Amino acid sequence: MFGCLVAGRLVQTDPQQIAGDKFVFNLPDYENVNHVVVFMLGTVPFPAGMGGAVYFSFPDPVAGQVWQLLGFITNDKPSAIFKISQLKPGEGGEHPFGMMTVPQLASMAQVGVSIEPLEQLVQQTPVSGATVCAVDSFMQVRTLWVVCSVHNQ
Q: One GO molecular-function annotation for this sequence (predicted)?
């Protein structure tokens, strides 16, 4: 249903499903990641009236898992590029991952997707610094295709 891409790495299309409506991608070597692309694979659409909130979590042994809202994807906006290089560990707020224990290694960050109602998604405010790249859909798809093509050669 979802994919995750970091430039220079293989595309991840196999998130860990931690609940019926929650998925997690692991990001090793996250200190060297500036942007992350989260996208729908095109095989399974969201149910009517639903979309996916995209979250990011740093490994933090002191604060535990703190999830930061980056933004969202929907059937009408099936991909988004998020800048994560300016995010800071420990910042964040309430999130749908709640008290779930999501296994996380000390050297690995995580990107989570939570399926939520659209009316709820549009009212949420992403964490400051989690800018969604402002390019049109054609450019997002083209960038994703170019990155995948170059990486797979």
A: nuclear import signal receptor activity
- Average pLDDT of the residues of the chain: 79
CB 68 within 8 A of CB 130: yes
d(CA 15, CA 2) in angstroms, rounded, equals: 7
Whether 135 and 80 have beta carbons less than 8 Å apart is answered as no
- Residue of 19, 3, 16, 5 lying closest to 96 (CA atoms): 19
d(CA 61, CA 11): 28
Taking alpha carbons only, the member of 21, 25, 24, 42 closest to residue 121 is 21
Using CA atoms, how far apart are residues 144 and 12, in angstroms rounded to an integer? Answer: 13
Domain boundaries defined on the chain: 2-151
Please tell me whether residue 103 adopts helix, strand or coil conformation: coil
Q: Tell me: the pLDDT tens digits for 42-63?
A: 999 999 999 999 999 887 767 6
Largest CA distance in the chain: 42
* Rounded distance between C-alpha atoms, residue 6 and residue 148, angstroms: 10
Q: How far is CA 150 from CA 11, 49, 83, in A?
A: 12, 36, 21
